[in-house]
Amino acid sequence: MADGDAGPRSLNAGHEMKRGLWWMGGATVAMRILDVGGSLLVLQFLSRSEVGLAALAWTFAVVLEAFNGLGVGAVVVRQRELSHSELSGVFWFSTLLGLAAVALMAALGPFIAIFYADARLYPMMVASAAKLVFVGAALVPLQLLTRDLHFKTSGAVQSLATLGEVVTKVVLVIAGFGAWALVLANLARGVFLCLAIWRLAPFRPVFHAADAAVRKAIRFGLSVSAAGIPYQIYRNMDNLLIGRVLGTSALGVYQTAFQLGMTPLEIISQLVNRVQFPIYAALRSAPADLVQAFNRSARTLFLFLGPVAILLSFGSADLLTMIGHGKWLPAVPLIQVLAWASLLRGLSQLFPPIYVATGRPRYGIVDALVTGSTLVTGFVIALALAPPGRGSQWVAWVWLLSYPAPLLVNALLVRRCAPITLGGLLAELRLPLLGLAGLTLLVGLGAQVTRSFGSPLLSLAGLIALALAGHAVFLRFALRLRLRDVVPRKAGAG
Q1: Which of 72, 169, 385, 453 is the most buried (most CB within 10 A)?
Q2: CA distance 297 to 275
Q3: Single pTM value for the model
Q4: What domain range includes position 313?
Q5: What is the DSSP string of 158-225?
Q6: 199, part of any domain
Q7: Largest CA-CA distance found in the chain, in angstroms, rounded
């Protein structure tokens, strides 16, 4: 069917999610260990101002990355009938968009550098934007792996890209490149992603001009990206405002807190969505199965996110005490807020993929506008009213307090896509939430004991052991889950 609305494929959604989470989850854990380890190492060598300057430079490139492919990646996953020639047309379109993004940044960069009164920003922003050329070239082959549920290969590609980024970052920081080390490492991620995908994925494009089918795919992609563009803008507006109002040193502390308190959990939620989106697309004509898949996503998200949020909340002080002779300790209260905010944010991010999979991407635009306007308004008010030295922490609180309104809006919108109800979702989350409450109490009491160890390393190790043991007991005896319940029983393709 030309519109991609074929009937549901014959698949076991639960099994495919387990298989996807097994391969992609393993890759994600490996990536996060590499990334966090590398980031903590380089924090020993960098100043707060250097981290803030690099964060400001790549933030503008991340905003431009919202235009990456203009949503055609979702079309590749959703419309399986696209021919190789049509996919090639989409490939050239996304690659040329990356080149256009670099040209746009080169044109706007001088004015941005003047606005922030720092000439160093301009070359850093252009270098950061160059990553989008490689990301654009990798878009179609990477989405084909997702569409065909080749999670093992996709996970390997992402892991290799992260490894290349971390090695580049560590080597350049030790060599004395300062803020440029972070900028060039960000560019290196795009390069390594492109190299890995071209080595491991079978797709090879041919020269093909945009015909009617390609133009139709682009039009649908535009409706998808209409939601993604506001998301990337509001998602990064905190960095842009803090950098302008409070300066790069304050931004360095805030960015460190965000990287530790929000980004690990954001990656987990992106993992769940990446695994579930092709399943949603395959089940979009089977409402009962779609509801079950969505509820399973929410349950899985909380079971993954919750223990990490708890550990970050209670263990961040021990971790940052060991880094940079304590110069990053001002990030601790921010991490403790952002870790809990990430739970609400992760739940909110479950909705847009189901909108796209069911052919209603305009609902994602509504979600992005409501969330974005709430957050950005909160950021501005927080920075205007916060007492001296508390601006960044007030911005962190905005993340936590802003999500109830978007969640309510999404609960109303999603019922037009599938018979998903707030009551059914809460019933699915009841036990995970009770378990997280108990684990929070357990780790909180344990933190009082581990602090008496006299060593932040031993204290952190004790908290990790306690959290893992407590969560394992909860999974086994409250949810009746065993290892075989989360490991795919059959070896799948990919």
Answers
A1: 72
A2: 9
A3: 0.79
A4: 13-486
A5: HHHHHHHHHHHHHHHHHTT-THHHHHHHHHHHHHHHHHHHHHH-----------HHHHHHHHHHHHHH
A6: yes
A7: 69
